[in-house]
UniProtKB/TrEMBL annotation:
Superkingdom in the source lineage: Eukaryota
CDD domains: SANT (cd00167)
Compositionally biased spans, kind Low complexity: 172-188
Name of one Pfam family that matches: Myb_DNA-binding
Species whose genome carries this gene: Brassica oleracea var. oleracea
Protein name as catalogued: Uncharacterized protein
Length: 277
DNA sequence: AAAACAGGCAACCGCTGGCCC
DNA sequence: TGGGCCAGCGGTTGCCTGTTT
């Protein structure tokens, strides 16, 4: 960034007495309390009314990326990573659009993930992160390994329960108030037409019938709840979808155990790339 | 133990497009 | 219709923290 521009902006902020840099706990509290009582509204007004010496932009960013109650924290799950890969292949760096399909995740977080993890791996492989070569590497190695992780997760977190009880009762929701349902939207949403495994121009979303490491059909039955995690969120429909297998339960909630694995270092992206060795 | 380095992420920036007057 | 204001977006920076030397 050009120094002169930076200096100018900084001076402008100083001239009107605006704070910059990291937010304090007190500022967070002021902003949160104000929004919870008055709603978001115009951000410049929010900043002023809340008694913050910040500009509206800064308040908006802080709220959307950090303070908003439904923000999810922790590592991205393999499911989320797959979805990001898929959606990025469709839309490129349209972070906010991609974020719409990952509830609780912010565009900033996804962008950071892409730059720090995906592009890092591309660099280490010495290939362009948007090149065909990289896409091939992702399709051939990354996706199967992510799916393998999901499979492990199925056995670790879901299947013991299901082995004891074959019922299709949904696991506990991570948000007990949520009534969001899963729907097979493979035939409903043209923008996601490839998620049912049919042929399409998409290169990332795992084809459940052809990806070599994918769970076998028997596992899908026994671990049906787990495998409904192979999906995403459709903002327009306010619904979750899962990929294919429309014969399994039509309503399901996100497993609580699912939250736990997001904290697990097993989801570290680096070990997914061990094929390099 | 301390310095150097690298990675991750929060926050900032300028640009763009939509809305309103 | 055009100008100003604002929110939202993607790109970039810089700080903090963990790791390595």
């Amino acid at each position: 960034m050009e120094d002169s521009m930076k200096t100018k902006s900084f001076k402008e902020s100083e001239e009107v007495g605006l704070r910059r840099g990291p937010w304090t706990l007190e500022e967070d509290t002021l902003l949160t309390n104000y929004i919870l009582h008055n709603g978001e509204g115009r951000w410049n007004l929010v900043a002023k009314s809340a008694g913050l010496k910040r500009n509206g932009k800064s308040c908006r960013l802080r709220w959307l990326n950090y303070l908003k109650p439904d923000i999810r924290r922790g590592n991205l799950t393999p499911q989320e990573q797959l979805l990001i890969l898929e959606l990025h292949s469709k839309w490129g760096n349209r972070w906010s659009k991609i974020a719409q399909y990952l509830p609780g995740r912010t565009d900033n977080e996804i962008k950071n993930y892409w730059r720090t993890r995906v592009q890092k791996q591309a660099r280490q492989l010495n290939i362009e992160s948007n090149s065909d070569k990289f896409f091939d590497a992702v399709r051939s190695f990354w996706v199967p390994r992510l799916i393998e992780k999901m499979e492990q997760n199925s056995f670790t977190n879901c299947c013991p329960q299901n082995n004891n009880n074959k019922s299709l009762l949904p696991p506990q929701s991570y948000d007990s108030t949520s009534t969001q349902t899963y729907t097979d939207i493979s035939s409903q949403n043209p923008g996601l037409s490839n998620i049912d495994g049919s042929s399409s121009s998409s290169i990332f979303m795992p084809d459940l019938t052809t990806v070599p490491h994918f769970i076998d059909p028997n596992t899908i039955i026994d671990g049906s709840m787990c495998n409904q995690e192979l999906g995403g969120y459709i903002p327009e429909m306010e619904e979750y979808y899962y990929m294919g297998n429309s014969d399994i339960g039509t309503e399901c909630h996100v497993a609580e155990a699912y939250e736990d694995v997001t904290q697990d270092p097993m989801w570290n992206m680096d070990d997914i790339w061990q094929f390099r060795e």
